Amino acid sequence: MELHDKHVNLQGFQQSQTGLSPAWSPDGDRIAFLSVRGDRPDDATYTDLYTIRPDGTGLEQLTDSDLATGGGKWGPNGRYLAFPGSDADHAYDPTTLHIADIEAGTTDDVSDSLDRPLGRGGAFYWTGDQTLLGLIGDEGRTRLVRFDATEDAPDRVYESQSALENIAQMSVGGETLALGISGPHESPNVHSLPLADVDADAAPVRLTDLNSELLEEYDEPGVEWIDFENEGQPVEALLYTPAEYEGEAPPLITTIHGGPISYDSPEFNYDYTFWTDRGYALLRVNYRGSSSYGGAFSAAIEGDWGNYEPADAIAGIEHVCEAGRVDEDRVFVTGFSYGGAQTAYILSQSDVATAGAAEHGIYDRYAYFGTGDSHNRMERDFGLPWEDGERYRDISSITDVDDIDVPLLVTAGDADWRCPSTQSEQLYVSVRKQGVDAKLVVYEDENHNIGDPDRAVHRLTELTEWFEAHGPSA
Question: How confident is the model at residue 120 (pLDDT cuts 50, 70, 90)?
Fold first, then answer.
């Protein structure tokens, strides 16, 4: 197959590498698939949806090279083809549900009015000839919505979902909905709910009991949504507190999510339970740039990284410190990927932290261009570095590295194509040159995660020991 017949995706960040994603129509007469067929596929931010007959004839293009699309799912009668799509030229617009009407030859957005993105993984399933159920990101939670294939009339359902409950996954089989439901102290477990009860205030039936023995070893943390403002902008965050939260205020670990077009939700994470069990409070801020709060909230950082995001996180830290919820003399900041970049921003722009741990981040955007897999995304936001080098330097925390004066742990994966380890090495050497107490950990053969179980344990141990070693005694 020629290169131009492939779906080439080098833009990274929010769009996953979906490949061709072939999908058979119910009658077996057509195959839907994804492809990029322009003159410069390596530079494409769009992905088009096509259909073709099994014998290779009848190729039809359903989209107009203006969307970054995901794989399609045929409706039961074969007339409609549903697929996720987002503006190819504007990464901050929510990914929405589109329906191609094969008979009418039209394609329409049926969830634009929500101003919310399809949930992680873009999960949606047909429940009838013209109806679907899917997940959306909705103010820090992943929620269930019913869609109509013929009009933009989405309807939030399953209203019994609590504010501290998150739907991690979903699937539809016959007349039953399967849900993977998670909470701050409950790892995802499978639940079932009859489709007929989705609109009622019915509780799903829990079918599994995963990790219960493990979680019995840890005290359940207190968890709450908190609201604060930064320069008049309302911001939300999740605050986790130790189970024995009495007396002296606990030390705080602020964990910054990556993306940046993502969001923190009240779901289970072993790290958080591990830390609260050791007496730490945790703060997870959905800063401007996060998804699930509408396109305008997400687009606030377009072309302006390193401004609103760290300011919102800093405001959240100051909010809980001023309220006496945590010990302001023992505040730690950490994050992975864009959260690692945020850690460096926060440490260089404020004195709120006692120490930090920047994991697998990017700190010099000018030097980064062309060395990772996100150059199309960078160009879309900031242009080309040789045309506007000053702009690239303005969004790089490395230019303000002389303002970092607290102990800093830096980690990287030496096979990371998203955030190359050279970025972490540059940050580490730069702070060490100033006499800052710093440590660099590079995980051999690891990509943009820590996949090996022993290394995952090592990572959590390193972070915890770093915080414990650099926090004044209570």
Answer: low
Beta bridge partners of 177: 172, 193
pLDDT at position 15, please? 33
260: preceding bond cis by omega (within 30 degrees)? yes
DSSP per residue, 277-340: HTT-EEEEEE-BTBSSS-HHHHHTTTT-TTTHHHHHHHHHHHHHHHTTSS-TTSEEEEEETHHH
SS3 of residue 7 by DSSP: coil
pLDDT tens by residue, 204-233: 999 999 988 888 888 889 999 999 999 999
Closest to 50 in 3D by CA, of 17, 8, 7:
7
Q: Set out the domains of the chain in order of their start, with CATH numbers.
A: 3-157 (2.120.10.30), 218-469 (3.40.50.1820)
Contacts (Cβ under 8 Å, ≥6 apart) of 441 = 409, 410, 411, 412, 459, 462
Tokens matching residue 17: 């590498």
Q: What is the pLDDT of residues 127-173, one digit of tens each?
A: 999 999 999 999 999 999 999 999 999 999 988 888 899 998 899 98
Helix, strand, or coil here: 182? Answer: strand
Q: pTM of the full predicted structure?
A: 0.90
